[in-house]
Amino acid sequence: MKVVPIALNTFRESVRDRVLYNLILFVLLLVGASLLLGELSMSQETKIIVDMGLSAMSIFGVLISIFIGIGLVYKEIDKRTIYSLLAKPIHRHEFILGKYFGLCFTLFVNTAVMAVAVALALLIKNGPSALQWKILPAAYLIFLELMVVTAVALLFSSFSSPALSALLAFFLFVIGRFSADLKLFADTVGSGAVKMFCQALYYALPNLANFNYIRETAHGQVASGRMIGAATVYAALYITVLLSATVVIFQRRNFK
Amino acid sequence: MRTWLWTSLLLASLGLSFPLQRWMDAQRGQAAVVEDSLYVSSGKTLRRMSLGFDALLADVYWLRTIQYFGGRMQLVRGRVNFLNVKDWHLDLLEPLLTITTELDPNYVQAWRFGGTFLTDLDPERGIAFVRRGIENNPDEWRLYQDLAYIYWKHGRYQEASETYGRGGAIRGAPAWMKTLQAVVLLKGGDRETAREIFRRMYAEGDDDYTKKLSLARLRSLQAEDEMALLGRLLSAWRERSGSCPQSLPALIKSTSPQLRNQMAQGGMQFDDNYLPLDPEGFPYAYNPSTCAIALADKSTIVRWNSY
Q1: Which residues of A are less than 8 Å from B53 in CB distance?
Q2: Which residue in B76, B49, B307, B281 sits closest to B191, CA to CA?
Q3: For position B37, what pLDDT does the model report?
Q4: Which residues in chain B have their CB less than 8 angstroms from residue A174's CB?
Q5: 3-state DSSP call for residue B244?
Q6: CATH class of the domain at B43-217
């Protein structure tokens, strides 16, 4: 199985590309929020630290997923390194899976460090409390969301230019976050055909709201084990669909 | 060119931009921290536009609400009756709080803030706002406490009592909510009930703001009690001698050591010459020609229009 070396190499490449530098910005943001918001927020600094920390985790992660994800395949083609890679005994699906899991590992490190930073900020602010542990399920769900977005970006990058891939991946992210409205629209619209179309879209497109537990976490609530399990299975299914489609498209590409 | 030249140029430009910005700010007048307009007035619309970051956006609107309120407070200080919130022209307070709570219906602090200040602007709107908060957070006993307080403040003792009762029935609510249910119904709006309500609000307050507000009201009540006691002593002196004492120290010195001891134990403060001080440490104002006692002009004890 050549997936692991390709994944590790992709991770090393993203470290060399200074992707993890965003962590510095994140820590500065948290420190700034902790110092400044105490005066401004009327005792809501803990909630704001959680909201800001988890939202920044999601925003930075989505930006990395999209902008690094779209370049994963394209860079290899553009630099023509794909020829030397595929000349070796590497299957195309191994190449795609390796690239995908490599970026996912980068995102995992990124999310884990950010989660520890948020927990530390809360520890400094309030001393030991249950909230420090409650952010972990929310961070895990954000990571699942990032894995889905990365798979989306990889799919588009397998057949399109980077700019168009970024645009399409971002649109799909927005639609994924709007999916609840899509369902609402389907439920309220009168026309049968439109209703069916909206419902089909709702079930076909990724529902990223399944992974968003930021608000609940900020209020000290935790997603139930069943919901976390269901979200994990949902992410696994959706990622399988996206990666399968990517592999099919990539296998049909002609690099001659 | 050499590096040091570029570095000097960079630092000089950066340094010059500071006075330039200050000059431009001065030319444009007081830069408003918060605009007096809302581009998007619906929290539900904003929630859809937030791409799932509604909690973060709720925080942004909460901070904006606090800034708006604080900005208005600074603006009216010394110009209008500072204690009458109606004079502050807080036109955007309700829309801002509505947006905040529509973005995050569990933002209890925002519901409580609205309960306090929207009620001062319009009691019915304040009551409706806190009721919406309770609908969204039916297990939050503090909102029942706030609603009951609003009812009590406006003399609606029956509704206050019922609300204390409903809040007290929530799991985790303190037992005194049930006590207040009975006290409010039996005693209505007397000072002792008020003291009990504010004492509870101070003890249970989970934020500085509630604590400060309750403490200010407790001190105000303490001052009222002390002035009532001093008034009774002054009446007794007048009945005895037919005139008013020349000064408050003269009045205090004429009392028995036991009474002075009782007064001190009740929290009344005196300076070295037996001049009585209000709970914030300012001497009471006394008029020897009318025997009238009042808070000194410079006293920081808050004069509430009502409890």
Answers
A1: 55, 58-59, 214
A2: B307
A3: 58
A4: 51
A5: coil
A6: mainly alpha
pLDDT tens, position by position, B158-178: 999 999 999 989 998 888 888
CA A249 – CA B86 distance, rounded (Å): 66
SS3 B287: strand
C-alpha to C-alpha distance for B82 and B294, rounded to whole angstroms: 19
How many helices (H) and strands (E) in chain B?
13, 4
Suggest the residue from A36, A42, A208 to mutate for an interface test with chain B (most B CBs closer than 10 A): A42
- What confidence score (pLDDT) does residue B176 get? 83
Q: Please indicate whether, in this complex, the C-beta atoms of A177 and B104 are within 8 angstroms of each other.
A: no
Of the partner residues B56, B66, B206, the one whose CB lies closest to the CB of residue A51: B56
- Are the CB atoms for A88 and B99 separated by under 8 Å? no
Q: Which residue of A has its CA nearest to B49?
A: A178
In chain A, what residues touch B54 (CB-CB under 8 Å)? Answer: 215
Residue A163 near residue A78, CB atoms below 8 Å: no
> Of A178, A215, A210, nearest to B104 (Cα)?
A215
**Cβ-defined contact of B48 to A181 (cutoff 8 Å):** yes
Q: In this complex, which of A43, A51, A59 lies closest to B55 when CB atoms are compared?
A: A51
**For residue range B106-139, what is the model confidence (pLDDT) as tens digits?**
999 899 989 888 888 888 999 999 999 999 999 9
Rg (CA), chain A: 20
Domain boundaries, chain B: 43-217, 223-294
A105–B contact, CB cutoff 8 A: no
Question: Across the interface, which of A40, A43, A177 has its CB nearest the CB of B51?
Answer: A177
Angstrom distances, CA of residue B138 to CA of B97, B175, B201, B280: 19, 18, 19, 38
CA distance A26 to A15: 17
Q: Which residues does residue B277 pair with via DSSP β-bridges, in sequence order? A: B269, B283
Average pLDDT over residues B203-215: 73
Pick from A26, A209, A174: nearest CA to A112: A26
Average pLDDT of chain B, as a whole number: 84
CA-based nearest distance A60→chain B, Å: 13
Which pTM value belongs to this model?
0.74
Nearest to A42 among B48, B106, B207 (CB): B207
Of the candidates A242, A72, A246, A70, the residue with the CA atom closest to the CA atom of residue A162: A70
Give me B191's structure tokens.
């000072």
ipTM of the predicted assembly exceeds 0.85: no
| A residues 179-208 lying closer than 8 A (beta carbon) to B | 181, 208
From chain A, the residues in CB contact with B106 under 8 A are 215, 219
Nearest to B149 by CA among B159, B141, B160: B160
